[in-house]
Amino acid sequence: MKDNFSTQSKAYATFRPKLPDEVYQFIYQHVSSFDLAWDVGTGNGQTAVQLAKKLKQVFATDISENQLSHAEQQPNISYKKESAEASSLENNSVDLITIAQAIHWFNFDKFYEEVRRVAKPNAIISAFTYSLFEVTDEKINELIQHFYWKETQPYWDAERKLVDDGYKTIPFPFNEIVAPKFWMEYQWSVDQLLGYMNTWSAALHYHKKTGKNLTDEFLTSELLAVASKEDTLTIRFPIHMRIGSV
Known about the structure:
The protein is α/β, with parallel strands linked by helices. The protein has a single domain (6-245), classed as Vaccinia Virus protein VP39 (Rossmann fold, 3-Layer(aba) Sandwich). It has ten helices and nine strands. It has helices spanning 9-15, 21-28, 46-51, 65-69, 108-118, 138-151, 160-164, 190-197, 201-210, 216-221; strands at 36-40, 57-62, 77-81, 94-100, 119-130, 134-135, 175-177, 182-189, 232-245. Strands 1, 2, 3, 4, 5, 6, 7, 8 and 9 form a nine-stranded mixed β-sheet that branches. Helix 1 crosses helix 8 (190-197). It is elongated and about 55 Å long.
């Protein structure tokens, strides 16, 4: 698994959007026992913290020690630096497995083998992601779409295509449940928007290659031609989910 986010941990915790309660409530409808959840690729613990409100215990793992150091601590969350493909969980111990914005980085065969080992019979596994946002302002949205699909594409890892496909193309060998469409909506300033864009793994690769910030030129040459730094932008993220019983 690639670690693209250790160097961006603070920005990741500040700017990454948080999934709405509706996502978790839908998942919980299908969970039969709430003793233990495994949040895989937990990053800074956003999902783990939400799960801890419902589950008795949450085991949250990530390969990035720096990300874990920014995670919110709760008495019923155990954070561990472990890979998705090899956890220290006991056999047949987990009721719910969640993977937020991370499964596209995993070795699917090895991870699913680990899922089957740790899952209780009929445990629920849910992988979810959000893809490119939309801006309700048409001119700004056109700029964002062009910037993402044309200008940033050389800097994305190949795994990003799985996100662009809405996780429809990832293997998912479980008893699948049809998930509804969810959205996240925010009112963001231009600075918040750019702060989020600079947490992209493409931004890291761009900086390593050029020594420059991914959005600096975009801001000055394109975005500020149609938007003001004082503007409030309505941002909508589509959420994509694969969910099933093990």
